[in-house]
Amino acid sequence: MKIAILPGDGIGPEIMKQAVKVLNVLGERFELETADVGGAGYAGHGHPLPASTLALARAADAVLFGAVGDYKYDSLERSLRPEQAILGLRKELALFANLRPAILYPELAGASTLKPEVVSGLDILIIRELTGDIYFGKPRGVRECPDGPFKGEREGFDTMRYAESEIRRIAHVAFQAAQKRDRRVTSVDKANVLETFQFWRDIVTDVHKEYPDIELDHMYVDNAAMQLVRAPKKFDVLVTGNMFGDILSDCAAMLTGSIGMLPSASLDANNKGLYEPSHGSAPDIAGKGIANPLATILSAAMMLRFSLGRPEQAERIETAVKAVLAQGLRTADIYEPGTTRVGTDEMGDAVVKALA
Ligand code: NAI
Ligand code: MG
């Protein structure tokens, strides 16, 4: 099995090194091949997503991605900025389902801004559709307002749209993910106001007929936002569109305390995927050896589960991460008095040791 390793910029190479260490001690015969992406792609090849990197990503069974972005590239035109690499990979690899588990390990209950009893033991999965919705709908732009009370003024406008097949495929991902969890799906929409999301609700309800073992309920997005903060443990799998998912997944991320703990997966129709920590390249701490590598290591676990058919190896990694937290080891972002502060390398080594 071939895995494309794309470390990227900032803390990307530091955290990726730890995930590679972990992959190398699993006793599997993975072929790991590394390529430049983001600012590193631009610096070495003149483009944030060099053709050779894209070719590797296409040829691989899965992609493990670090993070991209560096302020030194801020003056470049938009198409050459490091962040274009991740957008390009999503588009070129047809990755339409973004999975973000929000898990709060009991040892980190004190790291959340919410009361421990509200979040401890939290284990929910947010599934965000990535290709449709108002983010990509056309027409869009700024024009002269054609009618209504503001007729004749300039107005900005976008178009919200979802094709039936786009809704069907993300609904299947959600129901199938729920089959491996608590068998409950909450579809989040705004069917009371938006035609697009009434359609979404109807299609999700129709796809649900193929999954009689899964409990489905529908929730309006404003209520879902409220419930995520009030009683997040009520959820199992949430599935929603691109814009609502963007917002709700960041909200859910913060329930767990540190962005340094959160993995993510972006999948295509055949469960091939790109796996990456939810955070960016953290230029403020890059090169200091203090970044938390656990989100990247846990992303590698998701990769083993969803793309490489090795759920038992994924569980081994997750168990090792829990063991390391139970030992009291903490990087700076999750440090609390009474625990032991470690650097990026030490954290990676501790996970490797726990695996053995
Ligand atoms: P960021 O996620 O890189 O950092 C936000 C804050 O969290 C910083 O204080 C950082 O030090 C901290 N942090 C992030 N990851 C951490 C880790 N593993 N351990 C400990 N602390 C961690 O977001 P920011 O600062 O908004 O963006 C920095 C750069 O990253 C920008 O160029 C941005 O465009 C890019 N970015 C890239 C993403 C990607 O590659 N998918 C996603 C988000 C941002
Ligand atoms: Mg976001």
UniProtKB/TrEMBL annotation:
Subunit field text: Homodimer.
Record flagged with keyword Manganese: yes
The protein's name in its UniProt record: 3-isopropylmalate dehydrogenase
Coarse class of the protein's main subcellular location: cytoplasm
Domain Isopropylmalate dehydrogenase-like: 2-351
Record GO biological process: L-leucine biosynthetic process
PANTHER family tied to this protein: 3-ISOPROPYLMALATE DEHYDROGENASE
Superkingdom of the organism of origin: Bacteria
Cross-referenced InterPro entries: IsoCit/isopropylmalate_DH_CS, IsoPropMal-DH-like_dom, Isopropylmalate_DH
Subcellular location: Cytoplasm
Reactions the enzyme catalyzes: (2R,3S)-3-isopropylmalate + NAD(+) = 4-methyl-2-oxopentanoate + CO2 + NADH
Task of the protein: Catalyzes the oxidation of 3-carboxy-2-hydroxy-4-methylpentanoate (3-isopropylmalate) to 3-carboxy-4-methyl-2-oxopentanoate. The product decarboxylates to 4-methyl-2 oxopentanoate.
Residues involved in NAD(+) binding: 280-292
Entry's cofactor comment: Binds 1 Mg(2+) or Mn(2+) ion per subunit.
The keyword Signal belongs to this UniProt entry's keyword annotation: no
Record's GO cellular component terms: cytosol
Binding sites annotated in the UniProt record for substrate: 90, 100, 128, 222
Keywords linked to the UniProt accession: Amino-acid biosynthesis, Branched-chain amino acid biosynthesis, Cytoplasm, Leucine biosynthesis, Magnesium, Manganese, Metal-binding, NAD, Oxidoreductase
EC number: 1.1.1.85
Pathway of action: Amino-acid biosynthesis; L-leucine biosynthesis; L-leucine from 3-methyl-2-oxobutanoate: step 3/4
Family: Belongs to the isocitrate and isopropylmalate dehydrogenases family. LeuB type 1 subfamily.
Class of the enzyme per the UniProt entry, highest EC level: oxidoreductase
A single MF term (Gene Ontology): NAD binding
Chain sites annotated for binding Mg(2+): 222, 246, 250
